[in-house]
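Ex. 9. Protein: Golgi apparatus membrane protein TVP23 homolog.
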Amino acid sequence: QDSTDDIEDVSLFDADDDVSRRSKKSKIRHPVASFFHLFFRVSAIVVYLLCELLTSSFIACMVSIILLLSCDFWAVKNVTGRLMVGLRWWNQVDDDGRSHWVFEARKVSAQGGRTSSEAESRIFWLGLITCPMIWVIFAFSALFSFKVKWLAVVVMGVVLQGANLYGYIRCKVGSRKNLTSMATNYLGKQFLRQ
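Predicted structure tokens for Golgi apparatus membrane protein TVP23 homolog:
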């Protein structure tokens, strides 16, 4: 565990208290962010699935998929994570050349309420978890069907979407906690309950 990981509890927005008092259980407050959170992810998967049917140019398909994956990575990391669940992460390098990972979470309001809606949170986490799993399935499919040229594209999908998933999980659970020990404790509790 790197001791230079930081988690800061800072306000991500200059939001008024009136915003936090509104009911946020089921309504989507950021429909454009919710749309683009899923649009780039799903579009990259659809283009991958339909690419060989629509065109014979591997280069055009590869560029289209990687462009969609890159747009997704940027949108999720810089926009939708902040708006939909109040989390963000990044890496910064100090003057000595050391790399520091910073994980931030939006402060909870004074009333103890959450400032993001449950619907947006479900959309965010469902898209964030499901799509990398689909790319992993594509990776095994490309590997076992000997489609080596597609393997590079699929690996890019796994890496870009997996990096966002890892970063947001670290934001959610805290950077100081070891994810492996948390998973072991959770599985141990589930085993004891049964």
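Check your answer against this statement. The first strand starts at residue 6 and ends at 9.
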